[in-house]
Amino acid sequence: MKIIVGSTNRAKIIAVRDAFASLGIQAEVEGIDTDSDVSSQPFGDNETMAGARNRAVSAIKTGNHDLAIGLEGGVKELDGRLYICNWGALALPDGKVFTAGGAQIPLPEEVAQPVRSGKELGPVMEIFTSRADIRQTGGAVGVFTDGTVSRSDMFSHVVLLLAGQWQFAAGNHGRQGQ
Ligand SMILES: O=P(O)(O)OP(=O)(O)OP(=O)(O)OC[C@H]1O[C@@H](n2cnc3c(O)ncnc32)[C@H](O)[C@@H]1O
Ligand SMILES: [Mg+2]
């Protein structure tokens, strides 16, 4: 099957490839830059989920794919801390959209402060780690879990939650209860 991802970020594309491969689904996965139609640093679950949905809906409109995946990283305030939050959406050519949330972990204050005052997490993480392009590799989640869960591992779990819902809706309940 043909899958389009609403991003050219490597971590997101690898996440989609890994998730479908682990389900035993043969997929040709391609990425395209789409507009998330939300801020480049989404704040809160609502805006982050909207970004994921907009990416998926926009990507499926390019035609010629069986499904589209949108993945979005954001931040949210919770219990006095700034958490990363992550959302995904799977869009079908018939207009159906499935959504799923991903991992959330708190950011250290040193990173949270500049993000609260308007900086994007990606560049702040590059300064914090002195490493370039962290958002395409392990990501903030990789750094603050000591490499235990990378950004693509984390998004891969979101994609499994999406693919599972899509299979359930299609009546393919072979894995139910496992
Ligand atoms: O090309 P796209 O798909 O936009 O990839 P992106 O890395 O910008 O991903 P998002 O737009 O979904 O992420 C929103 C913002 O949060 C940043 N971000 C989110 N999660 C991150 C992570 O784990 N590590 C570093 N930056 C992250 C990212 O750089 C953006 O500024
Ligand atoms: Mg972005």
From TrEMBL:
<protein>
    <recommendedName>
        <fullName>Probable inosine/xanthosine triphosphatase</fullName>
        <ecNumber>3.6.1.73</ecNumber>
    </recommendedName>
</protein>
<keyword id="KW-0479">Metal-binding</keyword>
<comment type="subunit">
    <text>Homodimer.</text>
</comment>
<feature type="binding site">
    <location>
        <position position="35"/>
    </location>
    <ligand>
        <name>Mg(2+)</name>
    </ligand>
</feature>
<keyword id="KW-0460">Magnesium</keyword>
<dbReference type="InterPro" id="IPR029001">
    <property type="entry name" value="ITPase-like_fam"/>
</dbReference>
<comment type="similarity">
    <text>Belongs to the YjjX NTPase family.</text>
</comment>
<dbReference type="Pfam" id="PF01931">
    <property type="entry name" value="NTPase_I-T"/>
</dbReference>
<keyword id="KW-0547">Nucleotide-binding</keyword>
<keyword id="KW-0464">Manganese</keyword>
<feature type="binding site">
    <location>
        <begin position="7"/>
        <end position="12"/>
    </location>
    <ligand>
        <name>substrate</name>
    </ligand>
</feature>
<comment type="function">
    <text>Phosphatase that hydrolyzes non-canonical purine nucleotides such as XTP and ITP to their respective diphosphate derivatives. Probably excludes non-canonical purines from DNA/RNA precursor pool, thus preventing their incorporation into DNA/RNA and avoiding chromosomal lesions.</text>
</comment>
<feature type="domain" description="Non-canonical purine NTP phosphatase/PRRC1">
    <location>
        <begin position="6"/>
        <end position="161"/>
    </location>
</feature>
<keyword id="KW-0378">Hydrolase</keyword>
<dbReference type="InterPro" id="IPR050299">
    <property type="entry name" value="YjjX_NTPase"/>
</dbReference>
<keyword id="KW-0546">Nucleotide metabolism</keyword>
<dbReference type="InterPro" id="IPR026533">
    <property type="entry name" value="NTPase/PRRC1"/>
</dbReference>
<dbReference type="InterPro" id="IPR002786">
    <property type="entry name" value="Non_canon_purine_NTPase"/>
</dbReference>
